[in-house]
Amino acid sequence: MSGILASGSVALITGASSGIGAATARHLAERGARVIGTGRSRDRLEGLAAELGDSGLMIELDVRDEVGVTAALAGLPAPWRDIDILINNAGHDAGGWQVFQDLDRAASDDVIDTNVTGLIRMTSHIVPGMIARNRGHIVNIGSISSFSPYPKSAVYCASKFAVDGFTQSLRMDMADTLIRVTQIDPGVVLTGFQLKRYKGDQAAADAFVDSYPTGLTPDDVARSICFALEQPAGVMIDRIILEPTLDT
Ligand SMILES: NC(=O)c1ccc[n+]([C@@H]2O[C@H](COP(=O)([O-])OP(=O)(O)OC[C@H]3O[C@@H](n4cnc5c(N)ncnc54)[C@H](OP(=O)(O)O)[C@@H]3O)[C@@H](O)[C@H]2O)c1
Hints:
CATH superfamily: NAD(P)-binding Rossmann-like Domain
CATH architecture: 3-Layer(aba) Sandwich
Strand order of the largest sheet: 3-2-1-4-5-6-7
Strand content: 5-15%
Largest sheet: 7 strands, parallel
Bound molecules: NADP nicotinamide-adenine-dinucleotide phosphate
Number of strands: 7
Order of helices and strands: EHEHEHEHEHEHHHE
Distance between the termini: 31 Å
Helix content: 40-55%
CATH class: Alpha Beta
């Protein structure tokens, strides 16, 4: 194995309690990384902790909460403090899938607070250590929505366009360092994302998923993240776009 995963790196994943984040935690741990899994759902994080054993450290963390993020990172045990890999994955479109004029303003604000401000917050906390060690890889989870907008998701699409702009500019700012910056842009992934988008309406979430011939799995996305991380020094994967295709 090559790249930053080769040396027992420490990876912090936001939104590790389900879906893409949980799958990525498993894949990174399998490849020898030590994984700090973060999220708000203590129960689900505890389940992941049991799976990862000594390779995992779970902390409750809400990316919208500056004070809580500062305290959580300050409280990391010494062997876990030098974070080599940041996977900015936490995100949602809760209360979405409606035309803009019907969107709930509080839910829209939450999408921006989580998907954009939270992602920037986590990066700003962790980049200084990466720069001091001149070592690191930041992976931002965008979406097809980062470059291809569609109706009934104006604020979610805006949030993912923002992730894209941030990722591209951040990569330029890191150009004089050995820190790499990658964006992963999946199409539909079969996770709890759709259920939250439809405010817990399982039938509506199922109907949305069924309107596509197939979907990506969280493992598909996790493998693409690992591919970017496993590149040798001197190779930067800027962006990976994944789309589901018919599985024949
Ligand atoms: N599913 C798709 O079709 C799809 C497609 C393209 C991109 N994406 C992106 O992929 C990422 C992961 O989504 P997913 O599909 O894996 O959905 P998911 O299963 O619903 O997972 C979302 C994760 O984000 C965490 N999260 C939400 N708000 C948070 C907050 N304020 N602070 C900390 N963690 C928070 C959740 O953890 P807690 O609830 O425990 O906090 C959960 O672990 C998102 O950025 C999403 O936009 C998804």
